[in-house]
Amino acid sequence: MWNFKLNKFSKKGLSDVITTVLIILITISAIVIIGSTIISFSRNSLYESTRCSDVQNEITIVSEWSCYDNSAQNTSVQIRFGNVNVSKIYISLDINGNTNTYDEIDLPTINGGKKTYTFNNTISTFVKVGAYVKDKKCDASDSSEIGRCKI
């Protein structure tokens, strides 16, 4: 009565299996590509953000030896330098509400070295110090109000 031809594999069934496998492979490929892009971006962003955090609290102002002298018309700032690897430091002086930043400054010796910088024709009562790490300017690592020099 009924005549069935049984094929081991139906062409329609095989087509469905191939389609499913291709969709799974495309999905996995997309996940791998997107995942590697996100991981690479995150790794670079984390590296950039941690470069400056290593400098924080390693470059400090020695308040006891930082002052301004009205009669000599200068401001002296002493910096203590910790164990950090920076390309240069900057000192920002607040002068009557305006900020003057000095970038090209010789570095003190590392591991606790101190150096005093004198800025002529400048009277400042507030000073900030920070660093450049691989040519990226980091936020100030220390700031301080300074008083008149004791004569």
How far apart are the termini? 122 Å
- For the record, what CATH class of the largest domain applies? Mainly Beta
Count of spatially separate domains: 2
CATH superfamily of the largest domain: Immunoglobulins
Overall number of strands? 10
Secondary structure class reads alpha+beta
List the total number of helices.
1
**Range of strand content:** 35-45%
Going by CATH, the architecture of the largest domain would be: Sandwich
* Overall pLDDT metric: 82
- Low-pLDDT residue spans: none
| Amount of helix | 25-40%
| CATH fold-level label of the largest domain | Immunoglobulin-like
Shape: rod-shaped
Order of helices and strands: HEEEEEEEEEE
Q: For the CA atoms, what is the radius of gyration?
A: 32 Å
Largest sheet: number of strands, sense, barrel closure = 5 strands, mixed
Descriptive report:
The protein folds into two domains: 9-53; 59-148, Immunoglobulin-like (Sandwich). A hairpin with a 4-residue loop joins β2 and β3 (74-81). The model has no long low-confidence stretch (mean pLDDT 82). The chain is 28% helix and 36% strand. The termini are far apart. The strands form two sheets. Strands 1, 2, 3, 6 and 10 form a five-stranded mixed β-sheet that branches. It is rod-shaped, with a radius of gyration of 32 Å. It has one helix at 11-53, and strands at residues 59-61, 67-69, 74-81, 88-95, 98-105, 113-120, 126-133, 136-137, 142-145, 147-148. It is an alpha+beta fold and 151 residues long.
